[in-house]
Amino acid sequence: MIAINLLTDPGYWWFLYPLGGWGIGVLIHGITILAQGNFGSEWGERKIKEYMEKDKKNG
Description:
Elements: H1 2-8, H2 16-36, H3 41-58
């Protein structure tokens, strides 16, 4: 989008609007994920067990 903006109208930086909206959406998503507690102390252990089981299945 930045490239399109600079090629079409370099005097007006319209790409900041969708970039800001996208950033707000990512921020809200991150806050909700952290609020749910999906990344607690057990998360790392769960992921390690998941990868170990996946590795056993693949041989």
